[in-house]
């Protein structure tokens, strides 16, 4: 079977449009339509239901999509490995990084890596750890930072960093008089939180469930400078990684009682081929991450 129609089919499934799929693939729309029609004829099945300009996969189409994604992923990995056997010096790293780490932990590491490997292209995707983990499992990323306690059997990991989650308040907040903050005290305050799907939010939600308390979330934002500003002005409290709070932020941090530690790993798909570029990035991050992270 020619796998090109499978690429077309996957693009249509993702975009729900023949036109958008053709634009994404940089081919003429008639070529896409003809390829899908031939694929359906060869298989003797209807894969796509077309009605009122809506593109919906049939049950047969959904089953093919599952296999098509695996076939394309395996083909791309095989072609990459064969290319590298010929001594290619260039490559691309697609890595997923949570926003909090992307802003404070990874910049010096990424710059140092680019300095050492100037021919390797870095594509950094920012998002919540849960979203990034799913993108990694689907083959949309090569590597990703994930929370260690959510590791599925389909991924392999290398320990990356352990950081404490700290209660973060304004300099005149009553918590400043305390050495540690219990979860019960924390949840009595109005909170400034990341949106759902980010490890920052998931930790707080799990803690609330454990304490059988409902968080009073006054603000939701993934913008760290905005979170800091809201806290500084006394409109809420939050919890941030120790690396995020800097000396000139005019913020006070306290440990939870008991302390909350976050273990973050860098992960890749189990059994998949790691290109030379990805292996170089993985080795570099694991070797130099702790040193570059402490800026």
TrEMBL record:
Keywords: DNA-binding, Transcription, Transcription regulation. It comes from the Bacteria. GO terms for molecular function: DNA binding; DNA-binding transcription factor activity. InterPro entries: HTH-type_LysR_regulators, LysR_HTH_N, LysR_subst-bd, WH-like_DNA-bd_sf, WH_DNA-bd_sf. Coiled coil: none annotated. This is LysR family transcriptional regulator. Belongs to the LysR transcriptional regulatory family. The lineage of its organism: Bacteria, Pseudomonadati, Pseudomonadota, Gammaproteobacteria, Oceanospirillales.
């Amino acid at each position: 079977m020619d796998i090109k129609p499978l690429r077309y089919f996957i693009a249509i499934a993702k975009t729900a449009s023949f036109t958008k799929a053709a634009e994404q693939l940089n081919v003429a729309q008639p070529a896409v339509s003809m390829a899908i029609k031939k694929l359906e004829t060869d298989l003797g099945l209807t894969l796509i239901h077309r009605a009122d300009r809506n593109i919906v996969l049939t049950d047969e189409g959904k089953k093919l999509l599952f296999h098509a994604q695996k076939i394309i992923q395996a083909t791309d990995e095989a072609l990459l490995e064969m290319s590298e056997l010929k001594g290619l010096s260039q490559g691309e790293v697609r890595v997923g990084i949570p926003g909090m780490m992307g802003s404070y932990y990874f910049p010096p590491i990424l710059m140092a890596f680019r300095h050492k490997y100037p021919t390797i292209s870095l594509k950094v995707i920012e998002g919540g750890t849960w979203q990034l983990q799913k993108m990694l499992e689907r083959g949309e990323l090569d590597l990703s930072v994930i929370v260690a306690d959510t590791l599925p059997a389909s991924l392999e990991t290398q320990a990356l960093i352990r950081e404490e989650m700290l209660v973060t308040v304004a300099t005149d907040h009553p918590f400043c008089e305390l050495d540690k903050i219990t979860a019960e005290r924390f949840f009595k305050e109005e909170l400034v939180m990341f949106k759902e799907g980010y490890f920052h939010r998931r930790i707080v939600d799990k803690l609330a469930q454990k304490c059988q308390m409902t968080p009073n979330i006054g603000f939701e934002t993934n913008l760290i400078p905005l979170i800091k500003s809201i806290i500084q002005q006394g409109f809420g409290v939050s919890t941030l990684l120790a690396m995020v709070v800097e000396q000139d932020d005019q913020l006070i941090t306290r440990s939870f009682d008991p302390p909350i530690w976050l273990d973050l790993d860098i992960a890749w798909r189990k059994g998949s081929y790691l290109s030379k570029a990805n292996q170089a990035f993985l080795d570099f991050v694991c070797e130099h991450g702790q040193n570059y992270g402490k800026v």
